[in-house]
Amino acid sequence: MSHYESPIREPLVLGDKTYHDITEDIVKPIEGKANKNWYIAFYISLAAMLWGFGCIFYTVGTGIGVWGLNKNIGWAWDITNFVWWVGIGHAGTLISAVLLLFRQKWRMAINRSAEAMTIFAVFQAGLFPIIHMGRPWNAYWVLPLPNQFGSLWVNFNSPLLWDVFAISTYLSVSLVFWWTGLLPDFAMIRDRAVKPFQKKIYALLSFGWSGRAKDWQRFEEVSLVLAGLATPLVLSVHTIVSMDFATSINPGWHSTIFPPYFVAGAIFSGFAMVQTLLGIMRKVTNLEDYITRMHIEYMNIVIILTGGIVAVAYATEFFIAWYTGSPYENYTYLSVGAATGPYAWAFYSLLFFNILTPQLLWFKKIRRSFMWTFVISIAINIGMWFERFDIIAIVLSKGHLPSTWWRFEPTFVDVGIFIGTIGFFFVLFLLYARTFPVIAQAEVKTILKSSGEFYKKRSEQGIPTKPAIVLLNNDTMEINPDNNKKE
Amino acid sequence: MYQFSGKLKMLSFALIIFGAIGIGVGFLSTPGSVDDVKEMLSQESSQEDGHESTNQDASVNDHNESTKVIGLDHGDAVHGEHDDEHAEHVYHQLKNRPWSAVYVSLFFFLGISLLVLAFYASQRVAQSAWSVVLFRVMEAITANLVPTSIIMVLVILSASVFHWNHMFVWMTEGTFDPTSENYDAIVDGKSWWINATGWTIRGIVYLAIWNAYRWYIRKNSIAEDTANDNNKTYKKNYNVSVGFLFLFMVTETLMSWDWIMGLDPHWFSTLFGWYILSSLLVSALTVIAFVTIYLRSQGALPGVNDSHVHDLAKFMFGFSIFWTYLWFSQFMLIWYADIPEETTYFVARFEEYKVPFLAMVVMNFVFPVLLLLNSDYKSIPWFIVIGGVVILGGHYIDIFVMVMPATVGGQWYFGFPEIGAVLFFLGIFIYTVFSSFAKANPIPKGNPFLKESEQFHYYNIEHRGESSGDHH
Fold first, then answer.
1. Minimal-distance CA residue of chain B relative to A255
2. What is the pLDDT of residues B258-298, one digit of tens each?
3. How many helices (DSSP H) and strands (DSSP E) are in chain A?
4. Residues B420, B332: contact at Cβ < 8 Å?
């Protein structure tokens, strides 16, 4: 692979970094102690999580009736949150798999955390299919296991069953992909650890990685194959989630655009969540040299692109709802009826948070501003929640029969469980940030000499950045010290 | 500089002439009147007793009959009146055939040029380096957008203003007139969108936007070569490409509703615009690969190595799967919910076009996936050519199966007008593309990523047949 990089490209690693500096910067949060702010954030998250668990136990113990659902609106916050969390999870795989296939080097500073986010978000998503069941203790019946009911099996025609396979496969593949990438980094921490307990733990986690040439060769091939598999997986998972709605005959749900549109929305919301998290993380873990303004800008560009795709899909939904000529389509989630009905506030929130606000990112000043990015990313997270809520609740609130028209009001349990999942997510993420290498150091080290600021400047000045081998008089070889500063 | 060889020029002229003859034969062999059709039909039914017409009228767009009866059994030739109606119906379909044959090929070639343009814009916007040495190839292919657009304007005008053909059912006189027997209440309900004036203006606007960008970017891309203005021209091209991609996304969706979905005005699918996009995109990538492989074999592309070809083949592979994903999503969701007004679309296609309908899935998915999965194969030209021919054939059939059931129904076959139209547009394609390629430096010298592109080397590709001097 060529090491040449066009001078027009902005550096991806700022400052005068060496390989050793990268290591030091990344292990600092793991080897150091948590500060007060971390504990405050952790306890708040923990409290939210415990509150959420309380609500879940209350639901399971008492019955689904403690939620705000009614006999017409059988899905509301539960599935909204499910789809929202699954959607958020998609950015991680997109960053590590799709951007790998497209050889985007800027992914290297963010893929680890994005994947962690994926896994923790899928955990949250995975709660909802179980807890929204009336009889969650029979949940294992969804699995096609031989049994004593004359081998009574599941019906493979339901998208809810496809969900089971999609989400569980997605979680397992993401986990394996993530962990494979972590091996060299865990090994690095293991090799530096001074406390025996810590050494033991990281020795276990790193599976005896020793970094030989053959290992690296296989490692790269595995990463590529997994990226090739994860890309169709990430598309199909959210497609299957979208089919929970699109296979139905409800106006507003039955729409063929749902599969790609949900995927685009997932990338949109997922990137927004990555922005929210990394915006804070780069600051508190002092990783500003790795997660640079450039990274934030690139992610914002992906957000504009996917937001644009989502906007085209909205326009399509709106137009085709009219174009069908079917009177039932007049009250789908994006139609004239929805814009004037009792859920108009949800309709306009969707447009405001999801379509209008992200348009600010067209301005270079705004998409390169950390503050603005943070604000807009929060807006998108809200907007994408509304998108799912609108699709689900507005459509169900006015079905084919006027006698079934109903409205949905959430109860404190609905809200409590959602808050609980947010708490749970942050508990996991905060623990992750203190124990895992949040940047894939092995990957970042591969681009240091082509995309690092220091080396880019040198190559522009014509100073060689590849280690030149100098033969000395006594026939010993020495690496040209000029090219290996500090090492 | 590349020289457009006399041989190739001859070939393109020959294709245009033979193609035009084929199309002409198609037009001449259409029946002159309804009576001719009646005679033909009576001969047919005497030849095969109990002739089961394939013309199930399941398709909702069958010349306004759908508002009356769906599922007429034409095999039952007892009622005279019924026979007359049937004959008139077949007459229109037969009249439509040469028009539709031209339309399918025209849309296919126009769409490919458009998607090459969009892909090219995306490569500029993504600041991708690998494809820079292919920029001139892509620009040359987009030259075909000009003649196809002109022919498209003629088709638009002849269909809407002069009413020379019946491809779009809703253009039949009386469709919007409640007193007419051709009145179609459903289409009338959409007259805000489906009307000849709006349709014509919109079509011309889409073509104008695409051609304007093509003209501008081609001019400025050549200007980039000698600009030496600290990348100012390059940045301008970048910004214009961003704007174009935005407009493209919108116009492509609208175009597919107007030009293809509008052929079945009772039917709708929200996915449709993106489905057309995927079909044209994979064809466009295949065409880029073909032209690249050909020009490289002529020694006209010094900067292109096996890695570039490998990347093109990867795109062909990836977007073949993407097409399948959208095809399946659309088909499966409609099949699953089975709502009558949507299902008719596939019923008509499945009953009357079973072979092309199913063959297309094999050609567009199974074959390329099996052929191009192997990394080594993706840089071997003849593998790509075999895969690409099947992909292009498959996507031609895809368009064919979208257009024909709506216009000619059961009266389809693949003969003179269809083959003629393909040859005709292929001839125009070869002529415009290679003469355009000969007009500019094959290497975009001023692009700031050119050096990256020339040094581009995908790590697991063994560069066959290239001496070490060929890549640096």
1. B270
2. 999 999 999 999 999 999 999 999 999 999 999 999 999 99
3. 18, 2
4. no
pLDDT tens for residues B212-265? 999 999 999 999 998 888 889 999 999 999 999 999 999 999 999 999 999 999
Residue A475 has pLDDT above 60, yes or no: no
In angstroms, the Cα distances linking B251 to A78, A194, A278, A482, B153 are: 37, 62, 36, 56, 16
pLDDT of residue B472: 41
Q: Which residue has the tokens 């009338």?
A: B188
CA distance B377 to chain A (A): 16
Q: A469 pairs with which residues across the strands? A: A479
| pLDDT tens-digit map of A231-266 | 999 999 999 999 999 999 998 899 999 999 999 999
CA distance B210 to B255: 12
Instruction: Find the residue in A nearest to B129 (Cα).
Output: A6
Instruction: Measure Cα distances from B201 to A79, A264, B160, B176, B248 in Å.
Output: 44, 31, 10, 19, 17
Is the Cβ–Cβ distance between B195 and B412 less than 8 Å? no
Residue type, B185: A
With a CB cutoff of 8 Å and minimum separation 6, the contacts of A7 are A456, A460, B448
What is the pLDDT at residue B47? 62
A402 touching B (Cβ < 8 Å) = no
For A90-126, the pLDDT digits (tens) are 888 888 899 999 989 999 999 999 999 999 999 999 9
For A479, the enclosing helix (H) or strand (E) is: strand A477-479
Residue A184 and residue A444 in contact, taking contact as beta carbons nearer than 8 Å: no
DSSP string for A150-186 = TS----TT-HHHHHHHHHHHHHHHHHHHHHHHHHHHH
- Reading the block at residue A404, the tokens are 């079934």
pLDDT confidence of residue B48: 54
Q: B250: exposed, middle or buried (C-beta count within 10 Å: 0-12, 13-18, 19+)?
A: middle
- Find which of A161, A249, A323 to mutate to test the B interface (most B CBs within 10 Å of its CB): A323
Torsion of CA B24, B26, B29, B30, to 10 degrees: -120
Q: What is the pLDDT of residues B383-441, one digit of tens each?
A: 999 999 999 999 999 999 999 999 888 888 888 899 999 999 999 999 999 999 999 99
Residue A138, C-beta contacts closer than 8 angstroms, at least 6 positions apart? none
User: What is d(CA A300, CA A306) in angstroms, rounded to the nearest whole number?
Assistant: 10
Any chain A CB within 8 A of the CB of B373? no
Structure tokens of B7?
Answer: 């041989």
Mutate to test the interface with B, among A1, A2, A364 (most CBs of B within 10 A): A2
Say how many residues make up chain B.
472
Query: How many angstroms separate the CA atoms of B277 and A257, rounded?
Result: 13
Rounded distance, CA A191 to CA A199, Å?
A: 7
Distance CA B394, CA B355 (A): 12
CB A99 within 8 A of CB A111: yes
Between residues B40 and A126, the one the model is more confident about: A126
Measure Cα distances from A146 to A130, A150, A151, A153, B390 in Å. Answer: 21, 8, 5, 8, 44
Q: Is A344 helix (H, G, I), strand (E, B) or coil?
A: helix
Can you give B400-466 as a three-state secondary structure string?
Answer: HHHHHHHHCCCCCCCCHHHHHHHHHHHHHHHHHHHHHHCCCCCCCCCCCCHHHHHCCCCCCCCCCCC
Give how far B339 is from chain A: nearest CA, Å: 7
Q: How many beta carbons lie within 10 A of that of residue A122, not counting itself?
A: 23
Cβ <8 Å between A256 and B330? yes
Q: Cβ distance A167 to A122 under 8 Å?
A: yes
Check if B186 contacts A (Cβ < 8 Å): yes
Distance from CA of B133 to the nearest CA of A (A): 15
pLDDT reported for residue A76: 93
